[in-house]
Write a structure and sequence with these properties.
Blueprint: H1 10-20, H2 26-51, H3 60-75, E1 80-84, E2 92-97, E3 105-111, E4 131-133, E5 143-144, E6 158-160, H4 168-183, E7 191-197, H5 207-213, E8 222-225, E9 237-239, E10 241-242, E11 244-253, E12 259-260, H6 261-264, H7 271-282, H8 301-310, H9 313-319, H10 331-334, E13 339-346, E14 356-357, E15 360-369, H11 375-388, E16 392-394, H12 400-405, E17 409-414, E18 422-423, H13 429-441, E19 447-449, H14 459-464, E20 469-471, E21 487-489, H15 490-506
Parallel strand pairs: 3-7, 3-8, 8-20, 9-19, 16-17
Antiparallel strand pairs: 1-2, 2-7, 4-5, 4-6, 6-21, 10-18, 11-15, 11-17, 12-14, 13-15
Helix pairs in contact: 1-13, 2-4, 2-15, 4-15, 13-15
């Protein structure tokens, strides 16, 4: 299976979606604006408390502490909440809020774990000391003291901390949206559930088991994902799908120990050079994957057109300091293709240049998958490619016998299982309702992308529960996701609360 069929006339699909929508979203958005104006300091203080908890995905103590706080935050709203325990897996958080008289159920997904912070010296303020600034820290914007902050803060003010955007900000935005509707006596248009994950940044290796163990709680008509950034132009965005992902490390071996490069150059196999040649054999200069079997059915003309209109390529490149796209393609078209990214290179040690041929060289990769590709087939194709270059593949570091028997030696270290791409059809009734509400709420400004470039663990949800999904991001595109100085702009936080309120009231 490749890309799902897109509606041949997307405008027609939009008209059908409009007919499927519920109430007018305008009153909910107005209520959200009033609520934020009156309670901005309290909303930010709640987010500040959540962001102050370290949440690196590999620390189970941190994840459990975050989960406990989130349960309290949900319970404060009258939401039936609990920690979900699954043997051998990090904890998750579940919540349920009934809407009297409603038969449909919307499930909100976000994750509360975060990426490692990296060297704290790269941060302009400590990653777990949430800091308000008048604008972009990188532009020298001044710090705004929490006690001295005057509300409403300017639209360009930003909150800096790890997970401010990815993904704690959206959680607090959804809770603020519930508060706003309740204050205005606007009912929910569907029952609401929460599934907050604690290992997304670790690749969600246990998600399928967690979903299966708690299948009875997680029934819904649609999963609403609060992850990913909005359009770099500042326009709201809906994503109908995500690329899949798997990662691996490839180690190439040379001599049994480091050797003098003068004495042994042209004699000892150079693992650094051999690894570089392997990378070049797998990936062309324009990013095209050269590995046989790493391909997928091409997207339809309708999908291509939708992707091209969903992204503004020149602005995205400029914002990232990129002079030209590596592929030479429009951004939207690029994300419809698989990508093999080199993420790490290890050779030669530290302390300056050494005139030595070292014993091994390692590269880290991530592979982004598109519809029609599987993790297992991708791994088989990559391993077959390396064998075809003359390498014997090992399961462990080479023995003396291995070194004498084989001229070329390599070893793969595959990471967690990974997951394939996932994509919803715009014709799904729940997806259509979300599209209609978002179009109405944004006066048609929302951009609809068939795929976003990043990955989310959506495929396991489809495999275990069979539930459709849609992604409605709310954070700024320049949020430094996965990087130092992660941030959330006030303009996006306010709009995110308003749009989530619209979806809850008019879905």
């Amino acid at each position: 299976m490749g890309y799902p069929a897109m509606a041949s006339n997307f405008l027609a699909a939009g008209l059908l979606a409009a007919a499927a929508a519920g109430a007018d979203p305008a009153p909910a958005m107005a209520a959200a604006a009033r609520h934020v104006a009156a309670h901005e300091a309290a909303i930010l203080e709640e987010l500040r408390g959540l962001l102050a908890l370290p949440n690196v995905a590999t620390s189970q103590d941190d994840i459990r502490a975050n989960a406990a706080l989130l349960v309290r935050m949900l319970e404060k709203r009258g939401i039936d909440a609990r920690i979900l325990e699954t043997p051998g897996a990090p904890v998750s958080v579940y919540g349920e809020l009934a809407a009297p008289g409603e038969t449909r159920t919307l499930l909100f997904y976000a994750h509360f774990d975060g990426q490692p912070v990296g060297p704290e010296s790269a941060w302009l303020s400590p990653p777990f000391e949430p800091t308000l600034r008048a604008g972009r820290a990188e532009d020298g914007a001044a710090i705004v003291g929490w006690d001295a902050a005057r509300h409403p803060l300017p639209d360009e003010a930003r909150l800096y901390a790890r997970s401010a955007s990815d993904d704690k900000g959206p959680i607090v935005a959804m809770l603020a949206a519930i508060d706003a509707l309740r204050a205005a006596r606007i009912p929910l248009s569907a029952n609401l559930k929460f599934f907050l994950e604690g290992e997304e940044e670790a690749g969600s290796p246990n998600l399928a088991r967690t979903l299966a163990a708690h299948r009875g709680l997680l029934g819904s008509d649609l999963w609403l994902f609060g992850d990913g950034p909005i359009d770099p132009r500042g326009l709201p965005r809906i994503s109908l799908g995500v690329r899949g992902v798997t990662g691996f490390r490839l180690t190439v071996y040379g001599p049994a120990t480091s050797l003098h490069s003068g004495h042994y150059g042209n004699v000892a196999p150079n693992p650094g050079a051999r690894l570089a040649a392997l990378i070049a054999s797998m990936r062309a200069a324009d990013g095209t994957i050269l590995v046989d079997g790493l391909s997928a059915p091409p997207p339809s003309a309708e999908t291509l057109e939708l992707a091209r209109t969903a992204f503004e390529t020149p602005g995205m490149l400029t914002a990232a300091g990129i002079g030209a796209s590596e592929s030479g393609l429009d951004y939207g078209e690029s994300v419809l293709r698989p990508a093999l990214n080199v993420t790490q290179l290890l050779y030669g040690g530290s302390g300056g240049q050494r005139n030595a041929i070292d014993a091994e060289a390692t590269a880290g990769f991530d592979l982004r998958l598109v519809p029609g590709m599987t993790v297992a087939a991708a791994r088989e194709a990559i391993e077959a490619h390396v064998r075809a270059q003359g390498y014997a593949l090992l399961d462990a570091p080479p023995t003396a016998e291995d070194r004498l028997r084989h001229a070329r030696l390599a070893r793969f270290d595959w990471g967690d299982d990974g997951y394939p791409a996932a994509m919803s059809s715009p014709d799904d009734p729940g997806v259509a309702r979300v599209m209609a509400v978002m179009r109405e709420a944004t006066a048609g400004e929302v951009r609809i992308a068939p795929l976003m470039g990043g990955s989310l663990p959506i495929a396991p949800i489809g495999e275990v529960l069979g539930t459709p999904f849609v992604i409605v991001p709310m954070v700024n595109a320049d949020n430094n996701q996965h990087a130092p100085n992660e941030n959330l702009r006030m303009k996006e936080l306010r709009r995110g609360i308003a749009l989530y309120a619209a979806l809850l009231a008019a879905y």
